[in-house]
Amino acid sequence: MRAILIKKFGGPEVLEVxxxxxxxxxxxxxxxxxxxAALNPVDLLSASGFFVHLGRLAxxxxxxxxxxxxxxxxxxxxxxxxxxxxxRVIGMSDQLDRTPDxxxxxxxxxxxxxxxxxxxxxxxxAASLPLNSLTADHAIDLLELPEGGTLLxxxxxxxxxxxxxxxxxxxxxxVIATASAxxxxxxxxxxxxxxxxxxxxxxxxGQVDGVLDAANIGAAAVAATRPGGGFVAVNGSQxxxxxDVRGIAVFVTAHGPRLAELSALVEKGxxxxxxxEELPFEQVTQAYTKLAAGGFRGRIVLVP
Length: 304
Description:
With 304 residues, this protein is of the alpha/beta class. It is 25% helix and 29% strand. It has nine helices and 16 strands. It has helices at 41-48, 50-53, 123-127, 130-143, 159-170, 184-189, 219-222, 256-267, 284-293, and strands at residues 2-6, 15-19, 29-38, 63-64, 68-76, 88-92, 106-110, 114-116, 150-154, 174-179, 194-197, 208-213, 225-233, 246-249, 275-280, 299-303. Strands 3, 5, 6, 7, 8, 15 and 16 form a seven-stranded mixed beta sheet that branches. Strands 11-10-9-12-13-14 form a six-stranded parallel beta sheet. 47% of the residues are buried.
């Protein structure tokens, strides 16, 4: 089968299509015939060798890549319940050392990391959901905001930021969102009560109970957090916070049951799935070059 692999570290040019054996589903696992696999900025960190240099991943001859997948169950291992061959599913791969990973024609994941495919959506749309929505959801959990509390979301037009706005509203929070001025209508459609254009003061509406900094603004976003409030960055960085502000790190892991709930919210129209572009595996370099350049809205998705 074809799979996207990293055999040397660098930029988008190091991601390549390679022929590898089809993986087998072991006990507790499901094999998926992949219909779509979304790209995320963390994939570029994998390509750069960041996780090896950080000591979170051993040096290997090749690495698989990808976190988000949508497809059809092709084989079921022993002791799996809840899924059968032919079921359409979505899932998230949170293990950096899977080779191949979900950007492949077939992928094997634990059944507990899967969720039902949101009906009425395309495979590309469904594949755009897992990592970004689970990250936003977990970040809001960690902030422990009271119902009716105020949440500031930076990068609110992006994948994580957009979900944070929608999920914050669903939890009864007053959401203040910041993004490019051109994205105001989009962000308000997600449910933002107030909007701050990029470059304006983040305390325009006063300090807030919690900040979800999806845009990596850092110190200025920390300053918008009230004493006793919480600040969470979702990109791996964690700026210094004063003693009276809780600085929180987010490490998202696969969680099939919660992903199933998020998928159900997509079916109800309460969460948005956005795709910027679908590209075939053969255009993997172009896809990752676009990912690195940024400036798009919605996920770039590879299709076998």
